[in-house]
Specification:
Helix 2 packs antiparallel against helix 3 and helix 2 runs parallel beside helix 4. This protein has a domain of 70 residues. By secondary structure, it is an all-alpha fold. It starts with a helix and ends in a 7-residue tail after the last helix. It is built from four helices and no strands.
């Protein structure tokens, strides 16, 4: 009975605190600015891809364009473009992992 009571109270306590922070809070870096966190993630991924010579052609251009859009006040479009750039860095990382084992197998 104690285990059930502790479980129920724990679940209740966690759900009561679930909305303590607003929905705009980004858990990745503690910032509530979605553009800064998106660009930071895209730039980090792009630098990692450059380090292994597997960066895609347009990723750097997309990051620069996202910064220009944000400076022009088009934050929603800038966040979307930065997220696309981050997706490209994730795909390039996956491609690098596959390319490392490419070749004939005898």
């Amino acid at each position: 009975m104690k285990k059930v009571l502790i479980t129920v109270l724990s679940v209740f306590a966690l759900t009561a605190q679930a909305d303590f922070l607003g929905s705009a809070h980004n858990w990745n870096n503690g910032s509530s600015d979605s553009f800064k966190s998106a660009v930071k993630a895209a730039e980090a991924g792009y630098k990692a891809n450059l380090a292994v010579n597997m960066a895609w052609r347009d990723t750097g251009k997309m990051i620069k364009e996202a910064k220009k859009l944000n400076a022009a006040g088009k934050t929603a479009a800038a966040v979307a473009l930065a997220n696309k750039a981050y997706a490209q860095t994730a795909n390039a990382t996956a491609q690098a992992a596959i390319a490392g084992s490419a070749g004939p197998s005898f």
